[in-house]
Design goal:
Distance between the termini: 27 Å
Mean pLDDT: 85
Radius of gyration: 16 Å
Largest sheet: none
Shape: globular
Order of helices and strands: HHHHHH
Strand content: under 5%
Number of helices: 6
Helix content: over 70%
Length: about 140
């Protein structure tokens, strides 16, 4: 990937988040979108399911069309990846949102709690990688 790929990808994420917010009236944080799919009383499940399916389809499309995408495979054992996923899920509940909700949408709207949460996400991720790489 190049600098151009990163810029174009970031711009697409920003535009997609803006469109999702404008069209749904809700901040499209993945943890909230997916989490509420599991709540029986949620009335607006259709757009949430479509949003999730579009994320999966978009990733599948990139893997199918881009030979470079095939280079990105998990670098850790599946158990470690699963544990990391569970910890991320716990963190999104604790922080009342995920990196997409806070980091993309919240920071983009200058929400102070999102700026603090994103800072904490980054510092925690850096510390986790540092510790994990020293231990293994």
């Amino acid at each position: 990937y190049t600098f151009v790929n990163a810029i174009v990808g970031g711009m697409l994420i920003g535009v997609a988040s803006l469109l999702a917010t404008v069209l749904s009236g809700k901040v499209p944080g993945i943890s909230g979108v997916c989490g509420r799919l599991l709540v029986a009383a949620t009335r607006d499940k259709a757009w949430r399911a479509l949003f999730l399916l579009a994320l999966i389809a978009g990733a599948a499309l990139i893997f199918a069309l881009s030979p470079a995408a095939a280079l990105f495979r998990p670098m850790r054992p599946l158990g470690i990846v699963a544990l990391a996923g569970l910890l991320v899920g716990f963190g999104t509940r604790l922080g009342r949102g995920c990196t997409s909700g806070h980091g993309v949408c919240g920071v983009g709207t200058a929400a102070k709690d999102s700026i603090v949460a994103t800072f904490i996400f980054i510092v925690t991720a850096m510390a986790t990688v540092l510790i994990y790489n020293r231990v293994t």
